[in-house]
Amino acid sequence: MRNAFSQLLSELEGISTSDIPLIEWHHKLCFLAVVMDEKPAFAIGFDEPVPPRLVHFLDQQSPLLGLKVFSTKRPPREYLKMADVPPAIALAIVDKWDRSNRTNHSVTWVVKREDCKEAVERAVKGEARLGDALGYPACCAEAYNADRALHLQMYYQALCKSEGSNSTSVILKALEKNESVKAELPSAQRVIRTMSRFSFLPFIACQSCLDSPESPCSKRNETYRRVLATLAPGAARRVLIMARAMSNYGGGTK
Ligand SMILES: [Zn+2]
């Protein structure tokens, strides 16, 4: 069993899921947390293409590990309704983001329990919160949606400014022409602080989680750290080193 597991880990380690090594390890760690029943669902395909090698690996391993693997369309983006952007333009902007991330509107999920699969299916239908299906704290999921809504709004405003118009048809045409504008993600500072404080978290911590000594994030970070340190101690050390290096680099000299 131990040998079988170490073989699984070395196979998993050889599969590339992202251009950024830390994100790649977060993907793997989320998968392992589902295997250990410490996280309700693992998902890939939101912000990156789903690698065929990973799908093959999951199809092979799921019967042995008692996992359910399935694909769905992308769950509705909860932040679309929150942004002050005309709906047709909001959709065209996120479509453009999807194209630049090479995602194909399909998400691959791994769950261990039937109730977790049901939670995912409800989220895909827009009947439940995606953050709950993924096991993320509600405070951080809300902060994520607020950040994304603000980003969408900033992107829209930058586009209106560069086109010198806020007419829907002019803006949609500019998006078709693939004209890009600069609009930084408003959560950049929290991304850096999350990496340094909660290196194992696969999501961005909200301000309240970053500011308090005890938070849903510190609990989850510790759980994910334990999962990885137990199964692959070398990988756990690497995640810490990568996250600290990235947060130092991103945080400048402050
Ligand atoms: Zn939070």
Walk me through the structure.
The chain is mainly α and 254 residues long. It has 12 helices and 3 strands, in the order H-H-E-H-E-H-E-H-H-H-H-H-H-H-H. The chain has a 3-stranded antiparallel beta sheet with strand order 1-3-2. The longest helix has 26 residues, at 138-163. It is globular, with a radius of gyration of 19 Å. The termini are far apart. The mean pLDDT is 91. The structure holds zinc ion (ZN). Zinc ion (ZN) binds at residues 137, 139-140, 205-206, 208-209, 216-217. Zinc ion binds at residues 137, 139-140, 205-206, 208-209, 216-217.
List keywords for this structure.
single chain; 254 residues; mainly alpha; 3-stranded antiparallel sheet; globular; binds zinc ion
Question: Topology, please?
Answer:
Blueprint: H1 2-13, H2 21-35, E1 41-44, H3 52-65, E2 68-73, H4 87-101, E3 106-111, H5 114-124, H6 130-134, H7 138-163, H8 168-176, H9 188-197, H10 207-211, H11 216-231, H12 233-251
Antiparallel strand pairs: 1-3, 2-3
Helix pairs in contact: 2-11, 2-12, 4-8, 9-12, 11-12
The chain binds zinc ion.
Zinc ion binds at residues 137, 139-140, 205-206, 208-209, 216-217.
Q: What is the molecular shape? A: globular
Which runs of at least 5 residues are low in confidence (pLDDT < 50)?
none
> What's the Cα radius of gyration?
19 Å
Read across the widest sheet, the strand sequence of neighbours is: 1-3-2
Give me the secondary-structure category. mainly alpha
Give the ligands present. Answer: zinc ion
pLDDT averaged over residues: 91
SSE order: HHEHEHEHHHHHHHH
Strand content: 5-15%
Distance between the termini: 47 Å
